[in-house]
UniProtKB/TrEMBL annotation:
This is Guanylate cyclase. Residues 52-155 form the GAF domain. InterPro entries: GAF, GAF-like_dom_sf, Phosphatase_reg/MetRdx. Belongs to the free Met sulfoxide reductase family. Transmembrane segments: none annotated. The lineage of its organism: Bacteria, Pseudomonadati, Bdellovibrionota, Bdellovibrionia, Bdellovibrionales.
């Protein structure tokens, strides 16, 4: 049986992200691990020109690979290392137009050329990051950042997180 991919029109980014946020809201469950799996699949389905999307979770001060879509990835990233570790350590979104120009970039997939990483912060603590890679330069902009930060905020607010993460 062949599955059909239903795409949201990306020609108007604001409209695209409003529809995407509606879909994200529609699949959210109380269980955090279900949400990470479904949201990584949903973003992979709808975001054009990406080659990897997924989550890393904070475990004893390092980021461990969690739910994702794409090629196998780095399994452990130290806080402060690479784009993901920098987002976690600084608690700020990293919008990287050219990963080869990012000091200390960790190459998990040599096809990746640009990246956005949004930290997942709850009650002042970093739970993890949402990481999205693209095989083209300058793939992400401030519109992507604004709405992907809203996706993360929805996941954080609608999920029940285990005490080990918060």
């Amino acid at each position: 049986m062949e599955s059909t991919r239903i795409a949201i029109d990306y020609s108007n980014k604001e409209k695209f992200y409003k529809e995407l946020l509606s879909e994200v809201t529609g699949v959210l469950e109380p269980e955090w691990f279900v949400n990470l799996a479904n949201i990584s699949a949903l973003l992979n389905q709808h975001l054009p020109q990406i080659n990897w999307v997924g989550f890393y979770l904070n475990h004893n001060g390092e980021l461990l690979l969690s739910s994702f879509q794409g090629l196998p990835a780095c399994t452990r990233i130290a806080f402060g290392k690479g784009v993901c570790g920098t987002a976690a350590a600084t608690q700020t979104t990293q919008l990287v137009a050219d990963v080869d120009q990012f000091p200390g970039h960790i190459v998990c997939d040599s096809a990746s050329k640009s990246e956005i990483v949004i930290p997942m912060i709850k009650d002042g603590k970093v739970l993890g990051v949402l990481d999205i890679d693209a095989p083209v330069l300058n793939r992400f902009d401030h519109v992507d950042q604004k709405y992907l930060e809203q996706v993360v905020a929805l996941i954080l607010s609608k999920s029940i997180w285990p005490n080990s993460l918060i």
